[in-house]
């Protein structure tokens, strides 16, 4: 069953970026870049041991559903091994994201059209689940995955084991420890592809960090001179008066050249 991605994930999603090898690459190359899970900054992300849990603790539930544990493990291994992930956030105002992923507010935040990136990349999109325990740590959790497939997707588990295999793998691919909750992360998952082309219309906005350097602004100006990006809205992050918060002021292209340092 297809979901309404805008209703479920929001009209826009965001990626934070700082000066470096891939700075502005989405704009320069009109591509999204997907990483192998082993390259993530969280060493537990997608790396939890699951074979013992499935073989011992959860075998009874799986057996009752007619699911072969070894076939499940083999499929999960392939799914996670092939997966490549592009990470987004729901929240542009998140100060921790600016601090951690935009070089202490010196970088930028690019806004994407949610529906377009799903349609144009033909990739699966999923929310990250934040939890304090292993995502398959109990019979109730695996039973919950099976029930969701039956009730929401209307599947007959006895005849569609592949859907179970993919759902278990996706739960492992999209679970993180609760401390990461502030990221409000959404993931786009490809089957091995590390780059996916997107159209200019897939990018809708760029917000500039409140500590962005003149070099960053100039580089952004040079990229946005291309007619492909005339529709992109520009914003400058600012401190909100009398509050521990950010606000965003819409700006012109010329601001990037003539704003005071």
Element-by-element helix/strand order: HEHEHHHEHEHEEHHEEEEHEEH
General form: elongated
Compute the number of structural domains: 1
Structural class: alpha+beta
Mean pLDDT: 86
Low-confidence stretches: none
Helicity, in percent? Answer: 25-40%
Number of strand segments: 12
Total DSSP helices: 11
The Rg value, from CA coordinates, equals 21 Å
Strand order of the largest sheet: 1-4-10-11-12
Q: What is the CA-CA span between the terminal residues?
A: 51 Å
Strand content: 15-25%
What would you note in describing this structure?
With 261 residues, the protein is α+β, with helices and mostly antiparallel strands. It has one domain. The protein has eleven helices and twelve strands. Strands 1-4-10-11-12 form a five-stranded mixed beta sheet. Strand 10, helix 10 and strand 11 form a beta-alpha-beta unit. It is elongated, with a radius of gyration of 21 Å. The termini are far apart.
